[in-house]
Fold each of these.
Amino acid sequence: MFKWPDGELYHERVKAPVGSKSGAKAWGEQRQAELLSRGRKAVEDFRTFAERC
């Protein structure tokens, strides 16, 4: 779990693809850095989607 720069929390439950505790921590830190670098995708709501179709 971490906070986006705008303060919103992000939580994702995923099993780390490594076996050790230190490896899982390193993987989690890498995952967080990757998510922060890519940023969030804008998700349209249903009303916007319906108007487009």
Note: The helical segments are 21-38, 46-52.
Amino acid sequence: MSDINASEYLTKDEVKQLTGTSWKSSQRKQLDKLGYPYETAADGSPLVSRWYARNRACGVQVAMPSGPRLEFVR
């Protein structure tokens, strides 16, 4: 995870605390149940936006974009 700015994403320990499990597949399943959006790293671990988690913890309604991510389409 050295290529990813750790401050942008929750640490592995923070994801473990949020989900209550250390298993990557179980973390993704719990994040899905909780409605947290995440990206999946190459090793299968979920990457949760620190910005999203902080806003949600403060009770801020965060609207995540839906639909295709066209910025990757050429």
Note: DSSP finds three helices and two strands in the chain.
Amino acid sequence: MLLVGNGRVITRDENNPYFQAGAVAIDGEKIVAVGGEADLKEQYPGAEYVDAQGGIIMPGLVNAHTHIYSGLARGLAIKGCDPKNFLDNLEMQWWKIDRNLDLDATRAQVRCRRRSYLRRHGAWRGRCLWPPRRRFQYHRDLL
């Protein structure tokens, strides 16, 4: 059992959206209780305690998407590309790459990403529900 406390807890519960002096009780991979720190310390006296040092405790928001072609774009420098904002970055870099992708380049990028992932994590968990031709035709149609 783990108790993360001494923090301001933000929840997604309409009835209790915020605990100024809050804590979260975790058993394995499951959150079992959220509430005031004093109450949870009383409920779980033997729990290992992690001090949030007055910080915010909130649900983790994980964005697990990826752009396959970015695997080969690491360290890429396009001559004259000096984006000043996000739209500049799209127009000067990413959309330019999209317009030049072909099936062989896409396959090479998937292999590169897979190798990189395997080196870091030891297992490949990637999957895509669309076949490559359909996927990249879709991207080209957007442009």
Note: Residues 103-121 form the longest helix (19 residues).
